[in-house]
What does this fold into?
Amino acid sequence: MSGTTELWVIIIAMGLGSFGLRFAFLGLVGDRAMPEWLLRHLRYTAVAVIPALIAPLVVWPSATDGEPDPVRLAAAAATFAVGYLTKNVFAAMGVGATVLVTLNTLL
It folds into this structure.
């Protein structure tokens, strides 16, 4: 299989998989009430996915060739602390961005 054909096969397969997942929820069970235990577990999806996306960017940033960066670690710690204490996403993001920019400017 050539490189272009392989690429298109992967793109089509991923598109079909993505459609299948969405159709399973919206097309098959979209008009029915979901059980309470499932709704409770679905509430934690964002809480699980967002740290999984951000952790590699903090711990192994490509900007530093995979070496941990104290500035990013400090910004992540400040973001986590403010988010945990205030339960306010916007305050946490604002403090994290401020710490990141300030420390990058000073160091």
Remarks:
- The CA atoms of residues 58 and 72 lie 6 Å apart.
- DSSP finds five helices and no strands in the chain.
- Residues 3-28 form the longest helix (26 residues).
- Residues 47-106 form one domain.
